Amino acid sequence: IENHWVKGVPDRWPEVGEFLLNHTGHNFPLLSKLSHKRAIRALVTILRDNLDPKTTEIGLTTKSLAGLVFSVVVGNKILKEEAQLMATHYCAQLDENLLEDIEQFAKKALVEDCDEIKKSLEEISSHPDLSREDAACIHLARAASTSPAQISKTILSEITPILKPAQIIELMVWLSIQQLMHRLNCFYNAVDTA
If you count DSSP H runs as helices and E runs as strands, how many of each does the chain have, helices first? Predict the structure, then answer.
């Protein structure tokens, strides 16, 4: 099954970057540092499949914004820049203030009160490019991006009526991929400075 899954996926740079650019709109330059072909093919396949516009339940712009939230929470400038590039790629008419507003939201303390969560969802969804579902994804991404995650019963009680289970799962998978990319980035930064 693995061979079928990774069929046609390159395993070395710069072919990897070109393949991802053609399939996802971003080349993920961090992958240029990897040398194990099987790991490269697996990561490229994961990124290709998770950024497929035909299969996403939450949308690629929302995924990019969730990635932006994650990158701000963990303090990863490289991931932050990539998330911003991806968001502007997936939504060409993106409101110029949206990225800054999402970044500021990610820097704030997580709200726990039902009324505060509702107010936060309203603020986020007031952007012309975002729906209530997008706002719920962004809010859930903020709660899930801390270590350990801070997904409380209160947050779930406000988010789950808005999002379908498939959307929540897709978001959590995407944040897991962001965590993987963050760890790879930290590892290669340490190697490069050693």
Answer: 10, 0
Q: Peptide bond before 128: cis, by omega within 30 degrees of 0?
A: no
Residue where the block lists tokens 């290669």: 188
Rounded Cα distance, 23 and 21, in Å:
6
Q: Rounded to an integer, what distance in angstroms lies between the CA atom of residue 170 and that of residue 79?
A: 19
Judged against a pLDDT cut of 60, whether residue 1 lies above it is answered with no
> Who's near 176: CB < 8 A, 6+ residues apart?
none
The most distant pair of C-alpha atoms in the chain lies apart, rounded to whole Å, by 50
CA 67 to chain CA centroid, nearest Å? 3
Among residues of the chain, what percentage have pLDDT more than 90? Answer: 88
Pick the closest to residue 43 from 21, 22, 14, 20 (CA basis). Answer: 20
pLDDT in tens, 145-154: 999 999 999 9
What does pTM read for this prediction?
0.94
Token output for 161:
């009526």
